[in-house]
TrEMBL record:
It comes from the Eukaryota. This is 8-hydroxygeraniol oxidoreductase-like. SMART domains: PKS_ER (SM00829). InterPro entries: ADH-like_C, ADH-like_N, ADH_Zn_CS, ER, GroES-like_sf, NAD(P)-bd_dom_sf. Keywords: Metal-binding, NAD, Oxidoreductase, Zinc. Homodimer. Its cofactor is Zn(2+). The lineage of its organism: Eukaryota, Viridiplantae, Streptophyta, Embryophyta, Tracheophyta. The keyword NAD applies. Residues 19-372 form the Enoyl reductase (ER) domain. One of its GO terms (molecular function) is metal ion binding.
Length: 374
């Protein structure tokens, strides 16, 4: 006999992309119960990221359709698998796209936040448990937050501190934390920093630079509407290369007595900016961190070896932040008002109006973060 408390499939609404570049369709989907190590979450908030666009337009590594997008979000656990520990029904949680077992060699290392047991899953791992019109729906990474309910491996879930609004916690599940973490574990007080691209990721890098005591923080963007928010987050010098027609590296060197900066954080993913980002740093000791997701499938990076000149070039996933060991420290800074995440939210939509947010608001110059409220 089946126990009446046993979770059953839930019929709900989700935004489904059936074919590449088509508008999202909000329609009924069926979300199965979690397996033994998963949790099923009733979504409260999800936010939009430019990485979602690369999964919508097919420029990511492995485009699969039909798919539910979304990899940033918060919600309340509705049901848990029998092997899940440390989480219970009713917990408000953040949904992440990497895990941390705390036991593997990678988790024990200070060099990476990519767990060997619960890795970054670039494409759906086959456990989505979401169906529509008789077929399984793929997810983005191992998440699908643009749905009223999502099923996620429990190790990719972190409890939300009750002192923090879920709408703000949502913003820590990718973009802002990626930029913040990219600087957090590298920068030394008194250093000079240049951040190229002042969206949520770039502003995260700016804020970390400010908190860590950077002497100069250059914010570079071709959108003058980013100027005021950038300064509010900590930019000391805003530069728009369109106004001068000069290369980014030349502008930065002119502002640093020809030396360049100690660190350059590249957040646009535009291939043509790579050499400029490297050349903006100090010869021999400068470090460039690549964070931005390329807007094109074939990036065609053309690194000029002479520009590298014993400088350091690095990449990162989620800013090197470990979701269980490190993320609570950033949450605490938000609770203490050192970081004002709410300032990043420029637009809010319902799930029914998701196309307005995804296809309209995200293209507006004033847009930083679009949040979906369920």
């Amino acid at each position: 006999m089946t126990d009446n408390t046993t979770p059953r499939a839930i019929t709900c609404k989700a935004a489904v992309v059936w074919k590449r570049l088509e508008p999202l369709n909000v329609e009924e989907v069926e979300v199965d119960p979690p397996n033994s190590t998963q949790v099923r979450i009733k979504m409260l908030y999800a936010s939009m990221c430019h990485t979602d666009i690369t999964y919508w337009d097919g420029t990511n590594i492995n485009p699969l359709f039909p798919r539910i997008l979304g990899h940033e979000g918060t919600g309340v656990i509705e049901s848990v698998g029998e092997e899940v520990k440390g989480l219970k029904v009713g917990d408000t949680v953040m949904i992440l796209y990497i895990g941390e077992c705390g036991e593997c060699s990678n988790c024990a290392s200070e060099k990476t936040n990519l767990c060997s047991r619960y890795p970054l899953t670039v494409t759906d791992d086959g456990t989505s448990r979401i169906y529509a019109k008789g077929q399984r729906i793929y997810r983005m990474f191992s998440t699908a937050t643009w749905s009223e309910y999502a099923v996620v491996e429990s190790n990719y879930v972190v409890k939300v501190d009750p002192r923090m609004p879920p709408s703000h916690a949502c913003l820590l599940t990718c973009g802002f934390t990626t930029g913040y973490g990219g600087v957090w574990k590298r920068l030394k007080g008194g250093s000079s920093v240049a951040v190229i691209g002042l969206g949520a990721v770039g502003l995260g890098a700016v804020k970390a630079s400010q908190i860590l005591g950077a002497s100069k923080i250059f914010g570079i963007d071709v959108n003058d509407m980013k100027r005021d928010m950038a300064r509010a987050f900590g930019v000391t010098d805003f530069l728009n290369p369109k106004h001068s027609g000069k290369p980014i590296s030349q502008l930065i060197k002119e502002a640093t007595s020809g030396l360049g900066v100690d660190y350059c954080i590249e957040c646009t993913g535009v291939a043509s900016i790579l050499n400029e980002a490297i050349a903006s740093t100090k010869m021999g000791v400068g470090e460039t961190l690549l964070i931005g997701v390329p807007p094109e499938k074939k990036v065609g990076l053309s690194l000029i070896p002479m520009i590298l000149g014993r400088r350091t070039l690095k990449g990162t996933n989620f800013g090197g932040v470990k979701i269980h060991s490190d993320l609570p420290k950033i949450v605490e800074e938000c609770i203490n008002k050192e970081i004002n995440l709410g300032d990043l939210i420029t637009h809010e939509v319902s799930l029914a109006d998701i196309n307005k947010g995804f296809l309209e608001y995200m293209k507006q110059p004033s847009c930083v973060k679009v949040v979906i409220k369920f």
